Protein backbone atom coordinates (compact mmCIF):
# COMPACT_ATOMS: atom_id res chain seq x y z
CA UNK A 1 0.00 0.00 0.00
CA UNK A 2 1.29 3.44 -0.95
CA UNK A 3 -0.13 4.87 2.25
CA UNK A 4 1.80 2.61 4.59
CA UNK A 5 3.45 4.55 7.37
CA UNK A 6 7.20 5.20 7.19
CA UNK A 7 7.58 3.72 10.64
CA UNK A 8 5.54 1.90 13.26
CA UNK A 9 6.93 2.60 16.72
CA UNK A 10 5.86 0.25 19.47
CA UNK A 11 6.72 -0.32 23.12
CA UNK A 12 9.56 -2.83 23.12
CA UNK A 13 11.49 -4.94 23.60
CA UNK A 14 10.92 -7.41 20.78
CA UNK A 15 8.34 -9.96 21.87
CA UNK A 16 6.30 -7.52 23.98
CA UNK A 17 2.50 -7.48 23.86
CA UNK A 18 2.76 -4.20 21.87
CA UNK A 19 4.91 -6.11 19.36
CA UNK A 20 2.07 -8.59 18.88
CA UNK A 21 -0.30 -5.69 18.15
CA UNK A 22 2.26 -4.13 15.75
CA UNK A 23 2.35 -7.43 13.84
CA UNK A 24 -1.27 -6.82 12.84
CA UNK A 25 -0.01 -3.91 10.70
CA UNK A 26 2.17 -3.62 7.58
CA UNK A 27 5.25 -1.42 7.73
CA UNK A 28 8.69 -0.92 9.21
CA UNK A 29 8.35 -1.83 12.90
CA UNK A 30 10.70 -0.29 15.46
CA UNK A 31 10.69 -1.13 19.19
CA UNK A 32 11.34 1.79 21.58
CA UNK A 33 12.12 1.68 25.29
CA UNK A 34 9.47 4.01 26.68
CA UNK A 35 6.01 5.31 25.85
CA UNK A 36 7.36 8.87 25.98
CA UNK A 37 9.95 8.08 23.27
CA UNK A 38 7.14 6.83 21.01
CA UNK A 39 5.29 10.13 21.38
CA UNK A 40 8.51 12.06 20.62
CA UNK A 41 9.09 10.10 17.40
CA UNK A 42 5.48 10.50 16.25
CA UNK A 43 5.71 14.26 16.94
CA UNK A 44 9.03 14.77 15.15
CA UNK A 45 8.82 12.47 12.10
CA UNK A 46 6.42 12.51 9.15
CA UNK A 47 3.90 9.80 8.31
CA UNK A 48 4.73 7.52 11.22
CA UNK A 49 2.44 5.90 13.76
CA UNK A 50 2.83 4.72 17.33
CA UNK A 51 1.31 1.82 19.27
CA UNK A 52 0.98 2.27 23.02
CA UNK A 53 -1.06 0.62 25.80
CA UNK A 54 -3.71 2.96 27.22
CA UNK A 55 -5.68 0.85 29.71
CA UNK A 56 -5.69 -2.51 31.41
CA UNK A 57 -8.81 -4.18 32.76
CA UNK A 58 -7.12 -4.94 36.12
CA UNK A 59 -4.71 -2.04 36.57
CA UNK A 60 -6.65 0.86 34.99
CA UNK A 61 -5.33 3.57 32.66
CA UNK A 62 -1.63 3.79 31.77
CA UNK A 63 -0.53 7.14 33.19
CA UNK A 64 2.45 7.68 30.90
CA UNK A 65 0.14 7.38 27.86
CA UNK A 66 -2.52 9.74 29.24
CA UNK A 67 0.05 12.34 30.29
CA UNK A 68 1.63 12.30 26.82
CA UNK A 69 -1.74 12.54 25.03
CA UNK A 70 -2.48 15.56 27.22
CA UNK A 71 0.98 17.07 26.53
CA UNK A 72 1.19 16.66 22.73
CA UNK A 73 -1.60 18.76 21.20
CA UNK A 74 -0.92 17.55 17.65
CA UNK A 75 -1.00 13.82 18.34
CA UNK A 76 -4.36 12.08 17.86
CA UNK A 77 -5.88 8.64 18.40
CA UNK A 78 -6.83 6.83 15.18
CA UNK A 79 -7.80 3.36 16.31
CA UNK A 80 -7.71 0.91 19.19
CA UNK A 81 -7.12 -2.79 19.73
CA UNK A 82 -8.13 -5.00 22.66
CA UNK A 83 -5.84 -7.86 23.50
CA UNK A 84 -6.28 -10.55 26.14
CA UNK A 85 -3.05 -10.94 28.10
CA UNK A 86 -2.38 -14.67 28.44
CA UNK A 87 0.67 -15.83 30.34
CA UNK A 88 2.59 -19.10 30.08
CA UNK A 89 5.21 -20.82 32.21
CA UNK A 90 8.05 -21.41 29.73
CA UNK A 91 11.41 -23.05 30.42
CA UNK A 92 14.92 -23.29 29.08
CA UNK A 93 15.29 -26.34 26.84
CA UNK A 94 17.63 -27.99 29.38
CA UNK A 95 14.72 -28.34 31.79
CA UNK A 96 12.52 -31.42 31.62
CA UNK A 97 10.19 -31.07 34.57
CA UNK A 98 8.91 -28.41 36.94
CA UNK A 99 11.11 -29.72 39.80
CA UNK A 100 14.23 -28.76 37.77
CA UNK A 101 13.33 -25.07 37.78
CA UNK A 102 15.68 -23.13 40.09
CA UNK A 103 14.64 -19.58 39.14
CA UNK A 104 11.60 -17.85 37.60
CA UNK A 105 12.06 -14.55 35.73
CA UNK A 106 9.20 -12.15 35.00
CA UNK A 107 7.87 -8.63 35.23
CA UNK A 108 6.27 -7.64 38.55
CA UNK A 109 2.76 -7.27 37.10
CA UNK A 110 2.91 -10.72 35.51
CA UNK A 111 4.24 -12.21 38.75
CA UNK A 112 1.25 -10.72 40.59
CA UNK A 113 -1.06 -12.22 37.99
CA UNK A 114 0.50 -15.68 38.28
CA UNK A 115 0.88 -15.65 42.09
CA UNK A 116 -1.58 -18.48 42.81
CA UNK A 117 -0.04 -20.78 40.18
CA UNK A 118 3.50 -20.11 41.40
CA UNK A 119 2.48 -21.00 44.98
CA UNK A 120 0.68 -24.14 43.83
CA UNK A 121 3.79 -25.24 41.89
CA UNK A 122 6.01 -24.34 44.85
CA UNK A 123 8.15 -22.03 42.67
CA UNK A 124 9.54 -19.65 45.28
CA UNK A 125 12.74 -18.22 43.80
CA UNK A 126 11.33 -15.32 41.79
CA UNK A 127 13.44 -12.71 39.97
CA UNK A 128 11.57 -9.56 38.87
CA UNK A 129 12.97 -8.10 35.63
CA UNK A 130 12.04 -5.17 33.35
CA UNK A 131 9.53 -6.90 31.06
CA UNK A 132 8.02 -10.31 30.29
CA UNK A 133 9.99 -10.51 27.04
CA UNK A 134 13.25 -9.72 28.88
CA UNK A 135 12.30 -12.58 31.22
CA UNK A 136 12.05 -14.92 28.21
CA UNK A 137 15.44 -13.73 26.98
CA UNK A 138 17.07 -14.36 30.38
CA UNK A 139 15.48 -17.82 30.67
CA UNK A 140 16.83 -18.70 27.21
CA UNK A 141 20.37 -18.05 28.52
CA UNK A 142 20.00 -19.70 31.96
CA UNK A 143 19.83 -23.51 31.96
CA UNK A 144 18.05 -23.64 35.32
CA UNK A 145 15.43 -20.97 34.67
CA UNK A 146 11.82 -20.47 33.65
CA UNK A 147 9.97 -17.32 32.59
CA UNK A 148 6.40 -16.12 33.01
CA UNK A 149 5.77 -14.51 29.62
CA UNK A 150 3.54 -14.51 26.54
CA UNK A 151 3.38 -17.50 24.20
CA UNK A 152 4.81 -15.11 21.58
CA UNK A 153 7.91 -14.25 23.65
CA UNK A 154 8.42 -17.91 24.59
CA UNK A 155 8.51 -18.92 20.93
CA UNK A 156 10.67 -15.90 19.97
CA UNK A 157 13.37 -16.99 22.45
CA UNK A 158 13.01 -20.74 21.86
CA UNK A 159 11.60 -21.67 25.25
CA UNK A 160 9.40 -24.71 25.86
CA UNK A 161 5.96 -24.04 27.30
CA UNK A 162 5.19 -26.17 30.36
CA UNK A 163 1.84 -24.56 31.28
CA UNK A 164 -0.60 -22.28 29.46
CA UNK A 165 -2.91 -19.64 31.00
CA UNK A 166 -1.30 -19.44 34.41
CA UNK A 167 -2.79 -15.98 35.16
CA UNK A 168 -5.46 -15.70 37.88
CA UNK A 169 -7.84 -13.24 36.22
CA UNK A 170 -9.25 -12.26 32.87
CA UNK A 171 -6.78 -9.57 31.85
CA UNK A 172 -7.37 -7.39 28.80
CA UNK A 173 -5.12 -4.55 27.65
CA UNK A 174 -6.35 -1.88 25.27
CA UNK A 175 -3.77 -0.38 22.89
CA UNK A 176 -4.19 2.77 20.78
CA UNK A 177 -2.70 3.72 17.42
CA UNK A 178 -1.54 7.33 17.40
CA UNK A 179 -0.43 9.72 14.63
CA UNK A 180 -0.43 13.42 13.71
CA UNK A 181 -3.64 13.03 11.63
CA UNK A 182 -6.99 13.50 13.33
CA UNK A 183 -9.76 11.04 12.46
CA UNK A 184 -13.40 12.09 12.90
CA UNK A 185 -15.22 8.81 12.29
CA UNK A 186 -15.58 6.10 14.89
CA UNK A 187 -17.69 4.68 17.66
CA UNK A 188 -15.60 6.34 20.40
CA UNK A 189 -14.24 9.88 20.85
CA UNK A 190 -11.56 11.05 23.29
CA UNK A 191 -11.19 14.47 24.92
CA UNK A 192 -9.20 16.00 27.76
CA UNK A 193 -10.06 19.11 29.75
CA UNK A 194 -9.47 21.02 32.96
CA UNK A 195 -12.34 22.26 35.13
CA UNK A 196 -12.33 25.60 36.98
CA UNK A 197 -11.43 25.20 40.66
CA UNK A 198 -14.95 25.82 42.03
CA UNK A 199 -17.94 23.77 43.26
CA UNK A 200 -20.02 21.95 40.67
CA UNK A 201 -17.60 22.42 37.77
CA UNK A 202 -17.29 18.72 36.86
CA UNK A 203 -21.04 18.36 37.34
CA UNK A 204 -21.62 21.16 34.81
CA UNK A 205 -19.37 19.41 32.29
CA UNK A 206 -21.15 16.07 32.69
CA UNK A 207 -24.51 17.87 32.39
CA UNK A 208 -23.67 18.51 28.70
CA UNK A 209 -23.17 14.81 28.03
CA UNK A 210 -26.46 14.07 29.77
CA UNK A 211 -28.27 16.75 27.75
CA UNK A 212 -27.05 15.22 24.47
CA UNK A 213 -27.69 11.66 25.73
CA UNK A 214 -24.05 10.69 25.16
CA UNK A 215 -22.68 7.76 27.16
CA UNK A 216 -19.26 8.06 28.82
CA UNK A 217 -17.16 4.91 28.53
CA UNK A 218 -14.37 6.28 30.75
CA UNK A 219 -13.68 9.21 33.06
CA UNK A 220 -10.36 9.54 34.83
CA UNK A 221 -8.45 12.30 36.61
CA UNK A 222 -4.69 12.93 36.61
CA UNK A 223 -2.68 15.52 38.55
CA UNK A 224 -1.72 18.68 36.64
CA UNK A 225 1.68 18.44 38.42
CA UNK A 226 2.44 22.18 38.07
CA UNK A 227 -0.20 22.97 40.74
CA UNK A 228 -0.51 20.46 43.61
CA UNK A 229 -3.98 18.86 44.03
CA UNK A 230 -5.35 20.11 40.71
CA UNK A 231 -6.30 17.67 37.97
CA UNK A 232 -7.05 17.27 34.30
CA UNK A 233 -9.83 14.93 33.14
CA UNK A 234 -9.60 12.23 30.50
CA UNK A 235 -12.98 11.33 28.99
CA UNK A 236 -13.88 8.79 26.34
CA UNK A 237 -17.46 8.61 25.07
CA UNK A 238 -19.68 6.93 22.49
CA UNK A 239 -20.13 8.92 19.26
CA UNK A 240 -18.05 10.58 16.54
CA UNK A 241 -16.83 14.09 15.74
CA UNK A 242 -18.42 13.75 12.30
CA UNK A 243 -21.84 13.89 14.00
CA UNK A 244 -23.35 17.39 14.40
CA UNK A 245 -24.71 16.37 17.81
CA UNK A 246 -21.18 15.64 19.08
CA UNK A 247 -19.87 18.86 17.49
CA UNK A 248 -22.53 20.86 19.35
CA UNK A 249 -21.81 19.03 22.60
CA UNK A 250 -18.13 19.97 22.37
CA UNK A 251 -18.94 23.61 21.54
CA UNK A 252 -21.17 23.81 24.63
CA UNK A 253 -18.52 22.11 26.76
CA UNK A 254 -16.13 24.96 25.94
CA UNK A 255 -18.37 27.26 28.02
CA UNK A 256 -17.89 25.24 31.21
CA UNK A 257 -14.40 23.70 30.99
CA UNK A 258 -10.95 25.06 30.10
CA UNK A 259 -8.08 23.80 27.98
CA UNK A 260 -10.17 21.29 26.02
CA UNK A 261 -8.11 18.91 23.85
CA UNK A 262 -9.98 16.87 21.23
CA UNK A 263 -8.12 13.67 20.37
CA UNK A 264 -10.30 12.34 17.54
CA UNK A 265 -12.80 9.55 16.94
CA UNK A 266 -11.87 5.95 16.20
CA UNK A 267 -13.00 2.37 15.71
CA UNK A 268 -11.63 -0.86 17.05
CA UNK A 269 -8.91 -2.01 14.64
CA UNK A 270 -10.22 -4.62 12.20
CA UNK A 271 -6.93 -5.70 10.58
CA UNK A 272 -7.31 -3.99 7.15
CA UNK A 273 -6.72 -0.73 9.08
CA UNK A 274 -4.47 2.20 8.26
CA UNK A 275 -6.74 3.84 5.68
CA UNK A 276 -6.69 6.93 7.86
CA UNK A 277 -3.11 7.54 6.71
CA UNK A 278 -4.09 8.08 3.04
CA UNK B 1 -1.91 8.10 77.24
CA UNK B 2 -4.14 5.14 78.07
CA UNK B 3 -5.73 5.38 74.64
CA UNK B 4 -2.50 4.94 72.71
CA UNK B 5 -2.84 2.31 70.01
CA UNK B 6 -1.32 -1.10 70.65
CA UNK B 7 0.53 -0.83 67.37
CA UNK B 8 1.25 1.70 64.63
CA UNK B 9 1.88 -0.07 61.35
CA UNK B 10 3.56 1.97 58.62
CA UNK B 11 4.98 1.32 55.16
CA UNK B 12 8.62 0.42 55.69
CA UNK B 13 11.49 -0.04 55.57
CA UNK B 14 12.85 2.01 58.46
CA UNK B 15 13.66 5.49 57.21
CA UNK B 16 10.76 5.65 54.74
CA UNK B 17 8.62 8.76 54.37
CA UNK B 18 5.82 6.84 56.15
CA UNK B 19 8.28 6.32 59.04
CA UNK B 20 8.68 10.09 59.32
CA UNK B 21 4.90 10.45 59.55
CA UNK B 22 4.73 7.64 62.13
CA UNK B 23 7.25 9.54 64.26
CA UNK B 24 4.62 12.25 64.76
CA UNK B 25 2.66 9.72 66.84
CA UNK B 26 3.23 7.97 70.20
CA UNK B 27 3.16 4.18 70.29
CA UNK B 28 4.82 0.96 69.23
CA UNK B 29 5.83 1.51 65.58
CA UNK B 30 6.19 -1.46 63.25
CA UNK B 31 7.33 -1.22 59.61
CA UNK B 32 5.60 -3.57 57.12
CA UNK B 33 6.59 -4.38 53.56
CA UNK B 34 3.37 -3.60 51.70
CA UNK B 35 0.29 -1.43 51.99
CA UNK B 36 -1.89 -4.56 51.80
CA UNK B 37 -0.16 -6.07 54.86
CA UNK B 38 -0.94 -2.91 56.82
CA UNK B 39 -4.66 -3.25 56.02
CA UNK B 40 -4.57 -6.95 57.03
CA UNK B 41 -3.03 -6.11 60.42
CA UNK B 42 -5.50 -3.28 61.09
CA UNK B 43 -8.38 -5.63 60.19
CA UNK B 44 -7.19 -8.52 62.33
CA UNK B 45 -5.80 -6.85 65.47
CA UNK B 46 -7.52 -4.72 68.09
CA UNK B 47 -6.79 -1.07 68.81
CA UNK B 48 -4.07 -0.64 66.17
CA UNK B 49 -3.70 1.98 63.48
CA UNK B 50 -2.05 2.08 60.07
CA UNK B 51 -0.26 4.83 58.14
CA UNK B 52 -0.33 4.60 54.36
CA UNK B 53 0.25 7.02 51.47
CA UNK B 54 -2.95 7.81 49.58
CA UNK B 55 -2.00 10.43 47.02
CA UNK B 56 1.00 12.22 45.54
CA UNK B 57 0.81 15.64 43.92
CA UNK B 58 2.79 14.45 40.88
CA UNK B 59 1.78 10.80 40.53
CA UNK B 60 -1.86 10.88 41.65
CA UNK B 61 -3.66 8.44 43.94
CA UNK B 62 -1.93 5.33 45.28
CA UNK B 63 -3.91 2.44 43.79
CA UNK B 64 -3.01 -0.17 46.39
CA UNK B 65 -4.40 2.11 49.12
CA UNK B 66 -7.66 2.88 47.28
CA UNK B 67 -8.25 -0.77 46.38
CA UNK B 68 -7.77 -1.81 50.02
CA UNK B 69 -10.05 0.95 51.35
CA UNK B 70 -12.67 -0.29 48.89
CA UNK B 71 -12.09 -3.92 49.88
CA UNK B 72 -12.13 -3.62 53.70
CA UNK B 73 -15.60 -2.41 54.71
CA UNK B 74 -14.68 -2.06 58.40
CA UNK B 75 -11.55 0.06 57.97
CA UNK B 76 -12.03 3.85 58.15
CA UNK B 77 -9.97 6.98 57.65
CA UNK B 78 -9.40 9.00 60.83
CA UNK B 79 -6.92 11.68 59.83
CA UNK B 80 -4.49 12.78 57.14
CA UNK B 81 -1.04 14.34 56.95
CA UNK B 82 0.60 16.23 54.08
CA UNK B 83 4.34 15.88 53.73
CA UNK B 84 6.63 17.59 51.24
CA UNK B 85 8.97 15.01 49.74
CA UNK B 86 12.47 16.50 49.72
CA UNK B 87 15.35 14.51 48.28
CA UNK B 88 19.06 14.79 49.00
CA UNK B 89 22.18 13.42 47.33
CA UNK B 90 23.91 11.56 50.17
CA UNK B 91 27.20 9.66 50.00
CA UNK B 92 29.15 6.96 51.77
CA UNK B 93 31.61 8.50 54.23
CA UNK B 94 34.55 7.32 52.09
CA UNK B 95 33.55 9.78 49.39
CA UNK B 96 34.90 13.32 49.50
CA UNK B 97 33.69 14.88 46.26
CA UNK B 98 31.08 14.27 43.56
CA UNK B 99 33.71 12.99 41.11
CA UNK B 100 34.39 10.02 43.43
CA UNK B 101 30.81 8.70 43.08
CA UNK B 102 30.77 5.53 40.95
CA UNK B 103 27.14 4.47 41.54
CA UNK B 104 23.89 6.12 42.58
CA UNK B 105 21.18 4.02 44.26
CA UNK B 106 17.56 5.10 44.47
CA UNK B 107 13.93 4.22 43.86
CA UNK B 108 12.64 4.76 40.31
CA UNK B 109 10.25 7.56 41.28
CA UNK B 110 12.98 9.46 43.10
CA UNK B 111 15.36 8.99 40.15
CA UNK B 112 12.70 10.50 37.86
CA UNK B 113 12.35 13.42 40.25
CA UNK B 114 16.11 14.04 40.38
CA UNK B 115 16.77 13.47 36.65
CA UNK B 116 17.82 17.02 35.81
CA UNK B 117 20.23 17.20 38.76
CA UNK B 118 21.78 13.82 37.94
CA UNK B 119 22.42 14.92 34.35
CA UNK B 120 23.87 18.25 35.46
CA UNK B 121 26.25 16.44 37.84
CA UNK B 122 27.10 13.87 35.13
CA UNK B 123 26.07 10.96 37.39
CA UNK B 124 25.17 8.32 34.81
CA UNK B 125 25.57 4.97 36.59
CA UNK B 126 22.15 4.66 38.21
CA UNK B 127 20.92 1.59 40.10
CA UNK B 128 17.16 1.44 40.76
CA UNK B 129 16.32 -0.28 44.06
CA UNK B 130 13.12 -1.01 46.00
CA UNK B 131 12.89 2.16 48.08
CA UNK B 132 14.79 5.35 48.89
CA UNK B 133 15.64 4.06 52.34
CA UNK B 134 17.00 0.79 50.89
CA UNK B 135 19.13 3.03 48.63
CA UNK B 136 20.55 4.74 51.72
CA UNK B 137 21.28 1.34 53.30
CA UNK B 138 23.11 0.12 50.18
CA UNK B 139 25.14 3.34 49.91
CA UNK B 140 26.18 2.94 53.56
CA UNK B 141 27.75 -0.44 52.65
CA UNK B 142 29.33 0.57 49.32
CA UNK B 143 32.41 2.83 49.55
CA UNK B 144 31.93 4.19 46.01
CA UNK B 145 28.20 4.89 46.15
CA UNK B 146 25.68 7.66 46.68
CA UNK B 147 21.93 7.51 47.30
CA UNK B 148 19.04 9.77 46.36
CA UNK B 149 16.94 9.62 49.53
CA UNK B 150 15.35 11.64 52.31
CA UNK B 151 17.45 13.60 54.80
CA UNK B 152 15.94 11.28 57.43
CA UNK B 153 17.17 8.09 55.69
CA UNK B 154 20.61 9.64 55.07
CA UNK B 155 21.02 10.37 58.75
CA UNK B 156 19.60 6.98 59.78
CA UNK B 157 22.28 5.19 57.75
CA UNK B 158 25.13 7.61 58.54
CA UNK B 159 25.53 9.09 55.06
CA UNK B 160 26.93 12.54 54.38
CA UNK B 161 24.65 14.93 52.48
CA UNK B 162 26.38 16.56 49.49
CA UNK B 163 23.33 18.36 48.07
CA UNK B 164 19.87 19.24 49.41
CA UNK B 165 16.62 19.56 47.43
CA UNK B 166 17.73 17.90 44.23
CA UNK B 167 14.15 17.12 43.08
CA UNK B 168 12.79 19.02 40.04
CA UNK B 169 9.26 19.72 41.24
CA UNK B 170 7.25 20.54 44.31
CA UNK B 171 6.25 17.05 45.44
CA UNK B 172 3.75 16.53 48.25
CA UNK B 173 2.49 13.16 49.48
CA UNK B 174 -0.68 12.83 51.49
CA UNK B 175 -0.80 10.03 54.09
CA UNK B 176 -3.89 8.75 55.91
CA UNK B 177 -4.27 7.20 59.34
CA UNK B 178 -6.61 4.22 59.27
CA UNK B 179 -8.31 2.14 61.99
CA UNK B 180 -11.49 0.13 62.65
CA UNK B 181 -13.19 3.13 64.33
CA UNK B 182 -15.22 5.52 62.20
CA UNK B 183 -14.82 9.25 62.87
CA UNK B 184 -17.64 11.63 61.92
CA UNK B 185 -16.03 15.01 62.50
CA UNK B 186 -13.67 16.65 60.06
CA UNK B 187 -13.29 19.02 57.13
CA UNK B 188 -13.19 16.15 54.60
CA UNK B 189 -15.28 13.02 54.07
CA UNK B 190 -14.48 9.99 51.92
CA UNK B 191 -16.88 7.66 50.13
CA UNK B 192 -16.67 4.97 47.46
CA UNK B 193 -19.47 3.78 45.17
CA UNK B 194 -20.31 2.02 41.92
CA UNK B 195 -22.66 3.54 39.35
CA UNK B 196 -25.16 1.54 37.30
CA UNK B 197 -23.86 0.78 33.79
CA UNK B 198 -26.14 3.22 31.95
CA UNK B 199 -25.95 6.76 30.48
CA UNK B 200 -25.91 9.67 32.91
CA UNK B 201 -25.34 7.60 36.03
CA UNK B 202 -22.24 9.47 37.24
CA UNK B 203 -23.94 12.75 36.33
CA UNK B 204 -26.89 11.83 38.55
CA UNK B 205 -24.53 11.12 41.45
CA UNK B 206 -22.70 14.44 41.06
CA UNK B 207 -26.06 16.23 40.82
CA UNK B 208 -26.59 15.43 44.52
CA UNK B 209 -23.36 17.14 45.50
CA UNK B 210 -24.34 20.15 43.40
CA UNK B 211 -27.81 20.27 44.98
CA UNK B 212 -26.28 20.34 48.50
CA UNK B 213 -23.56 22.78 47.40
CA UNK B 214 -20.82 20.37 48.50
CA UNK B 215 -17.39 20.75 46.90
CA UNK B 216 -15.54 17.64 45.67
CA UNK B 217 -11.82 17.69 46.44
CA UNK B 218 -11.13 14.47 44.50
CA UNK B 219 -12.88 12.11 42.11
CA UNK B 220 -11.10 9.07 40.73
CA UNK B 221 -12.09 5.83 39.03
CA UNK B 222 -10.57 2.37 39.47
CA UNK B 223 -11.31 -0.89 37.65
CA UNK B 224 -13.64 -3.31 39.46
CA UNK B 225 -11.33 -6.12 38.14
CA UNK B 226 -14.05 -8.82 38.33
CA UNK B 227 -15.81 -7.26 35.31
CA UNK B 228 -13.54 -5.75 32.61
CA UNK B 229 -14.10 -2.04 31.83
CA UNK B 230 -16.31 -1.41 34.85
CA UNK B 231 -15.17 0.94 37.61
CA UNK B 232 -15.71 2.04 41.17
CA UNK B 233 -15.46 5.71 42.13
CA UNK B 234 -13.45 7.23 44.95
CA UNK B 235 -14.76 10.62 46.08
CA UNK B 236 -13.51 12.96 48.76
CA UNK B 237 -15.49 16.09 49.58
CA UNK B 238 -15.65 19.06 51.96
CA UNK B 239 -17.94 18.53 54.96
CA UNK B 240 -18.50 16.07 57.81
CA UNK B 241 -20.82 13.16 58.53
CA UNK B 242 -21.84 14.90 61.76
CA UNK B 243 -23.65 17.53 59.63
CA UNK B 244 -27.31 16.77 58.80
CA UNK B 245 -26.80 18.22 55.29
CA UNK B 246 -24.09 15.62 54.55
CA UNK B 247 -26.20 12.85 56.08
CA UNK B 248 -29.09 13.81 53.76
CA UNK B 249 -26.79 14.02 50.76
CA UNK B 250 -25.56 10.47 51.39
CA UNK B 251 -29.11 9.16 51.87
CA UNK B 252 -30.11 10.67 48.52
CA UNK B 253 -26.99 9.29 46.86
CA UNK B 254 -28.12 5.77 47.79
CA UNK B 255 -30.99 6.20 45.30
CA UNK B 256 -28.65 6.70 42.33
CA UNK B 257 -25.49 4.70 43.09
CA UNK B 258 -24.82 1.17 44.32
CA UNK B 259 -22.46 -0.35 46.86
CA UNK B 260 -21.78 2.91 48.70
CA UNK B 261 -18.97 2.71 51.29
CA UNK B 262 -18.64 5.57 53.77
CA UNK B 263 -15.08 5.88 55.06
CA UNK B 264 -15.56 8.62 57.66
CA UNK B 265 -14.71 12.29 58.14
CA UNK B 266 -11.34 13.57 59.24
CA UNK B 267 -9.07 16.54 59.83
CA UNK B 268 -5.46 17.15 58.91
CA UNK B 269 -3.33 15.69 61.71
CA UNK B 270 -2.23 18.36 64.21
CA UNK B 271 0.23 16.41 66.37
CA UNK B 272 -1.86 15.95 69.56
CA UNK B 273 -3.89 13.47 67.49
CA UNK B 274 -5.17 10.02 68.37
CA UNK B 275 -8.10 11.13 70.53
CA UNK B 276 -10.34 9.24 68.14
CA UNK B 277 -9.01 6.01 69.69
CA UNK B 278 -10.46 6.75 73.12
Class by alpha and beta content of chain A: alpha/beta
Flag low-confidence runs of chain A: 271-278
Most residues in contact, chain pair and counts: A-B, 33 and 33 residues
CATH architecture of the largest domain in chain A: 3-Layer(aba) Sandwich
Number of strand segments of chain A: 15
Please provide the ordered H/E string of secondary-structure elements of chain A. Answer: EHEHEEHEEEHHEHEHEEEHEEHE
Largest sheet of chain A: 10 strands, mixed
InterPro entries (chains A, B): ACT-like_dom_sf, ACT_dom, Preph_deHydtase
GO molecular function (chains A, B): prephenate dehydratase activity
Protein name (chains A, B): Prephenate dehydratase
Keywords (chains A, B): Amino-acid biosynthesis, Aromatic amino acid biosynthesis, Lyase, Phenylalanine biosynthesis
Amino acid sequence: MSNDPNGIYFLGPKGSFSNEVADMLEGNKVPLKTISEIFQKVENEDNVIGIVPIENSLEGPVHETLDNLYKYDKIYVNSYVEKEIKLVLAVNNSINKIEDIKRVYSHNHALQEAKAALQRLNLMNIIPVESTSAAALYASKDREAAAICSQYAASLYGLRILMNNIQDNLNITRFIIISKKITINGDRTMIFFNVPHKPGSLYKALEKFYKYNVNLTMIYSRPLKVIPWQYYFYIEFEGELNDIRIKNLIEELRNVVTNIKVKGSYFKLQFQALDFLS
